[in-house]
Input
Amino acid sequence: MTTLTAPPARRGAGALRAAGVFVERSLRQNLRDGEALLMAVLLPVLLMLVFTYVFGGAIDPTGAYLSYVVPGIILTCAGFGASGVAVSVNRDVTTGAINRFRTMPIAGATVLVGHVVASLLRNLVATGLVIGVGVALGFRPDATPLEWVGAVGVVGLYILAITALFAFIGLVAGSPESANGYGFLLLFLPYASSAFVPVETMPSWLRGFSEHQPITPVIETIRGLLTGTEIGTAGPLALVWCVGVVLVAGLLVALTFPRRLRR
Amino acid sequence: MTPAIEVDSIRKSYASAVVLDGVSLTVPSGVYALLGPNGAGKTTFVNVLTTLLRPDGGTARICGVPLSQRRTVRRLISVTGQFAAVDELLTVTENLVVVARLLGLDAARARSRAAELVEAFDLGAVAHTLVRTLSGGTARRVDLAMSLVQRPAVLFLDEPTTGLDPASRRRLWADVRELATAGTTVLLTTQYLEEAEALADRIGVLAGGRIVAEGTAAELTAVVGGEEVVLTEADGTEVRTLTTDGTVAGLAAALDRLEPDTAALHVQLRRPTLEDAFTALTQHRTTSTEKEVAA
Output
């Protein structure tokens, strides 16, 4: 008869190593998801071409519009890209992967850390792509190295805020398709901000919304840092908005995650 | 020796319904099948025992460790759920490597362990294929392989073969038998009687949130009584069914009670099956009152 032996208890990776494994896993998923990847590359290029060559001439015939619009396109692409985290998180919920990770001897929440860090890295690369295309078309930012660091920092913080918010949406959404649907909000919200045209040109009812929605101060801050326009109170406002969204969304995730299961 | 699984009066309710109404069972080792119809509470039970859900009441121990020590319990168990919890955008090997590294193996050992499992589960042909292109049966085998990256003391299988074709099902059964032989205790939920009969040392029948019967397949079958005498027309249509105690005298007595006009009918002896037992046990709770009224 076979000797029955219970195997020794398993140790499990520490939180830091587990997070590292999950970041790698999420990045690999991002690279495999061909459609999302194509979107991430095509969107900045197409938006840039449309706004420069289609609308640009009508908005400002001198050609100065390019330097006005690049910060807006950076933010549109980063926000829309970051909203993709909702699909990654929801996929883990609906396939039951999250159940498996939470029955393993690791800190289960590190799976979310993986998705968030991967989203940050992926969208910073997308931002670099937008700037690259902009420069190729004639965008000439006059930022000092310190201003560059500031601009990338603000973009990073904005990506983090959108990522945290959409990680929560991904946790509660019923399916990856519906999780994906909310991303469109981020594609259109910038149009009702100072991203593409100054808010002064909008009707007064819309101006009230556009001036006070979070994207406008973020845009103004990035625009100021890159092209030297007036920042004023936009800087602190942008920080408060982004940090506020990260905290609120983080709290919502912390409250939701322990109860969310594939049933 | 400490039993692999001890469960004492586990209760779990949701706002609208009582799902587990005091479930108790003990599995010393081997394979235990929890048999129950859809909605009986099988998945909730597995979720409680695998630390995913906190019970409202009752206690349970895995290899002597109380469920409240979640972290320690998680070192002892693996779960393969009803839905293949595999990463569709990764290859078979990558899925196995992720789990191996999460269990603390370094990159090189994780890769060699993944290769061993690919070999053991006969997944060589699809080792570098994206999981989303695999058939349901193969994905389920990958899922099982992921649960066995480091052999757990207790493996939970929640409806492991639901939706699989017969060949895939037999293959998974063979894997489970092999594991049990190697000393892993398996708690399996299923709605298929033949699965419970084929794999389990003991079977518990879960209905209405309670274990309504427990025993070996033979013991459960005996619950419904001895043999049945079935009278049929020449074309096979059943006319009457008589229950006997299985002895010659019992059979003779049963036939004696028949009216003379049944002499031309065909006669057939039938042993009750596990299915008869299951039907009797799981329907008893809801229909016993109606039966009494009808009688």
Notes: The CA atoms of residues 78 and 123 of chain A lie 5 Å apart. The mean pLDDT of chain A is 89.
